[in-house]
Amino acid sequence: AQKVTQAQTEISVVEKEDVTLDCVYETRDTTYYLFWYKQPPSGELVFLIRRNSFDEQNEISGRYSWNFQKSTSSFNFTITASQVVDSAVYFCALISSSGGYNKLIFGAGTRLAVHP
Amino acid sequence: SQTIHQWPATLVQPVGSPLSLECTVEGTSNPNLYWYRQAAGRGLQLLFYSVGIGQISSEVPQNLSASRPQDRQFILSSKKLLLSDSGFYLCACQEIRSYNEQFFGPGTRLTVL
Q1: A55 to chain B nearest CA, in Å?
Q2: What are the CA-CA distances from residue A2 to residues A100, A106, B48 (Å)?
Q3: B49 touching A, CB under 8 A?
Q4: Averaged pLDDT score across all residues of chain A
């Protein structure tokens, strides 16, 4: 069975603080893909990153960085020097080979509030 | 890159009325298409997906149905809405037969009164 757990329901930080959003996944497959999406107040889900199971390199994109660790089945997302515009719900998601390429398993989401 | 259109953006309907939400996609061919529902403050629930014209798979039993009359058109329908059908409906698109990311449309916010 595949599962994605985002244990943090809500996080509140003050602008310029760094914040890490946790994501733990479960799958028995050796081939799988992990994703992060951002859902701002407008509602549309915005794709942020895809990482496949064979690539454990961490990635940095501006103030965003992702830490993929297969040993702990985690794919955490860090925002450095957070800004008010980062306020949104963030979803971690998984596609695995046995689940089929058309089954995107989402976590419950973490609501991030960045205060000025 | 693909662009996903959804309409209407918002909808208020009485219980028992019919529903038709439309999703169209530009910039890709033969995509996988998806309908998700998000209840207020909740996560995303996959309702239907389609890998081609006329091919619909349902994930959860419900009074909703989906159709794909054209390659880049995906329709969500109901003959009689229930209060529990209220939510935010998102259409998503994915390149066919791939593990690529899904791209989402702007969504339709449905309120059933």
Answers
A1: 14
A2: 11, 10, 19
A3: yes
A4: 92
Does A100 touch chain B if contact means CB atoms closer than 8 Å?
no
A78 — pLDDT class (breaks 50, 70, 90) = very high
Q: Please name the member of A43, A103, A109 whose beta carbon is closest to the beta carbon of B107.
A: A43
Chain B nearest CA to A15, separation (Å): 24
Segments of chain A assigned E as strands:
3-5, 10-14, 19-21, 24-26, 32-39, 46-52, 59-61, 64-69, 74-79, 88-96, 105-106, 110-115
Closest chain B CA to residue A36: B101
Owner of token pair 């409906």: B89
**pLDDT tens digits for range A57-68:** 888 889 999 999
Is the Cβ pair A102, B107 closer than 8 Å? no
Segment B40-78, tens digit of pLDDT: 777 898 999 998 999 999 888 778 999 999 999 999 999
